[in-house]
From TrEMBL:
Protein's name according to its UniProt entry: Bifunctional diguanylate cyclase/phosphodiesterase
Domain EAL residue range list: 23-277
Top-level taxon: Bacteria
Organism this protein belongs to: Pseudidiomarina gelatinasegens
Residues of the full protein shown: 223 to 501 of 506
Length: 279
């Protein structure tokens, strides 16, 4: 029995260390990725369907690993958050996207709003404010062209820090969007405590909106609440015409999802907007 238990103990340790080393390996690779141009950004357009126009783009990070190919952000963003790498990623994403969009002549013309995803760790102390301000310093115009998307769980992890930085940026025009709205524990409290101009209805609500009466009612309630509070609403993860029609009929003004456009690189975005303008 002794050898048996020690044997299984060993096995457990071996498995654990395998898991740990693959995480440690990924972390090491991620540190290198920033310096070796393996990270890029893509843009997913958002639309006001009623007015038939593009309202803005959400910027999403991509990691092209030299051996493993594309690694999705859900695999490395949490790791980056845990190990103090997120600020470097946020700075890279903001600077790269603004540089590309300005260079392409799209910002303030075809694109009136650029949304960035930010994490709790992006908001630690006075230097965070300075970082954001430095990242935005190349903007040739109004800062209301910028929006920060923050999940409620991120906000609650660091409420005081988030509040402090967002209020400074918000006064200078930067917009704030509450991401994955409705999936957290205290969405209403977050709305009450932070300066927020937009909510994004999470894709989990959109997914079954046509079949599931409960989800449909929740979405209608979010829309009514947002209207009363003068918040913009974006529905994300719209994949079918049935979902889009339902959302439009319910009064949702902005839609984002594969039905309209997938996240795309800057060259493709330029072509995409060119085609829109020709229609
Ligand atoms: P998110 O902010 O909720 O972003 C929306 C995700 O849904 C994106 O996945 C997007 O590609 C995907 N999506 C868009 N339309 C559809 C659709 O119609 N159907 C489906 N099934 N999915 C759709 P992605 O790019 O893999 O990003 C996943 C998450 O990683 C993001 O969720 C965000 O939380 C995080 N993330 C991505 N880029 C960044 C970044 O630059 N910084 C930080 N901190 N987080 C990021
Ligand atoms: Ca937005
Ligand atoms: Ca987002
Ligand atoms: Ca989301």
């Amino acid at each position: 029995a002794k050898t048996n238990s020690r044997g299984s103990h060993k096995l457990f340790n071996a498995e654990l260390s395998q898991v740990m080393s693959s995480r440690a390996r990924l972390l090491l690779d991620l540190k290198l990725a920033l310096d070796h141009n393996q990270l890029t950004v893509v843009y997913q357009p958002q639309f006001c369907v009623q007015e038939n126009r593009m309202t803005g783009v959400e910027v999403l990070v991509r990691w092209h690993h030299p051996e493993r190919g594309m690694i999705p952000p859900s695999d490395f963003i949490p790791l980056a958050e845990q190990h103090g790498l997120i600020c470097g990623i946020t700075d890279f994403v903001m600077r790269t996207a603004l540089h590309e969009l300005i260079e392409a002549g799209l910002l303030y013309r075809d694109i009136q709003r650029v949304s960035f995803n930010v994490s709790a760790a992006d908001f630690n102390g006075n230097e965070s404010c300075d970082r954001f301000i430095a990242n935005l310093s190349e903007l040739p115009g109004d800062w209301s062209v910028i929006e920060l998307e923050l999940t409620e769980s991120a906000a609650l992890l660091n409420l005081e820090g988030v509040k402090q930085v967002l209020s400074v940026l918000n006064k200078r025009g930067v917009q704030v969007s509450l991401d994955d709205f409705g999936t957290g524990y205290s969405s209403l409290n977050t709305l009450r405590l932070l300066p927020i101009q937009e909510v994004k209805i999470d894709q989990s609500f959109v997914k079954d909106i046509v079949q599931n009466k409960q989800d449909a009612k929740l979405v209608r309630t979010i829309l009514a609440m947002a209207k009363a509070l003068h918040l913009r609403v974006v529905a994300e993860g719209v994949e079918t015409h049935a979902q889009a029609n339902y959302l439009i009929n319910a009064g949702c003004e902005e839609l984002q999802g594969f039905l309209y456009a997938r996240p795309m690189e800057i060259d493709h975005l330029i072509t995409f907007i060119g085609n829109l303008n020709q229609q």
